[in-house]
Amino acid sequence: MSAPLTEQATGRIEGQRPAIRLEAVSKIYGQGRTALLALDQVSLSVAPGEFVCLLGASGCGKSTLLSLVAGLDRATAGHIDADDSRVALMFQEPALFPWLTVSANVEMALRAKGVGKQERRDRAAEFLDIVHLGGFGKKRPHELSGGMRQRVALARALAQDADVLLMDEPFGALDAMTRDLLHDELERIWRERSLSVLFVTHNVREAVRLGDRVVLLSSRPGRVVEDFPVELQRPRRTDSGEVAELAGEITGRLRQEVLRHARQEEPA
Ligand SMILES: Nc1ncnc2c1ncn2[C@@H]1O[C@H](COP(=O)(O)OP(=O)(O)O)[C@@H](O)[C@H]1O
Ligand SMILES: [Mg+2]
């Protein structure tokens, strides 16, 4: 018997536990008069091996949601289940240690797990090969371009032996051409290593280029407005007609959300 359509759309296999599951998660910052509802009853799951893009206007709670999943902060209400997953985070800024070599930056993740020196070096070299930075191990971060530094951050995330990648606008500061290249790289690595990815962006085309699904969050407080399955064949091109068409539809929906929010904020 075939799975229900919604499960097919999410690429989920019946009975399989999600890699990440959020159930009615809310987050309030502060207390009393200054309390700010950042997330309001967000429910969302990412199946093992699934690539989910979380899209929303700035300030809608995307980074908040990732920090809750990563366990850096606690939800005010609701439930988050990512217990069985090894989670690695990647930010817009690669956050490398400038005084360490590229290799040593990647080795940090292995050192934390008690891997011996020589093995650390060899494995860091392997991870740098995966992100096409073989031979750059002895450089310092400032000797690399922005795109290369993000590759190092990706290698470091992989070195954590993560099966779930949480990515917070990781390519937001890069030029369009570099971003395109990194999309290809990330897609390849995601496939080869069967990762589950929760990828935050405010770039609609990027979300459609990468995601199995695009989950649209409303402006503050963040709520799930709509979940768009992306059934376009991979690899996709950001500048293709198909990507543009779906991105146009999602942008229309996003615009409605932003306008609705702006009206609410206007003084009466
Ligand atoms: N530590 C914090 N304390 C108070 N307010 C915060 C904190 N972090 C984020 N916020 C607020 O919560 C809302 C959501 O922020 P954020 O998750 O960073 O949004 P996004 O990543 O979508 O731009 C914003 O209004 C922001 O100002
Ligand atoms: Mg953010």
Automatic annotation (TrEMBL):
Which positions, given as ranges, span the membrane? none
Family matches, as SMART domains: AAA (SM00382)
PROSITE patterns from the entry? Answer: ABC_TRANSPORTER_1, ABC_TRANSPORTER_2
Q: InterPro entries this protein is in?
A: AAA+_ATPase, ABC_transporter-like_ATP-bd, ABC_transporter-like_CS, ABC_transporter_ATP-bind, P-loop_NTPase
Which GO MF terms does the UniProt record name?
ATP binding
Q: Which residues form the ABC transporter domain?
A: 20-244
* This protein's record includes keyword ATP-binding: yes
Answer yes or no on keyword ATP-binding.
yes
Q: Name one Pfam family in it.
A: ABC_tran
Q: Which UniProt keywords apply?
A: ATP-binding, Nucleotide-binding, Transport
Q: According to the lineage, what is the superkingdom?
A: Bacteria
Q: What is this protein called?
A: ABC transporter ATP-binding protein
Organism the protein comes from: Nonomuraea spiralis
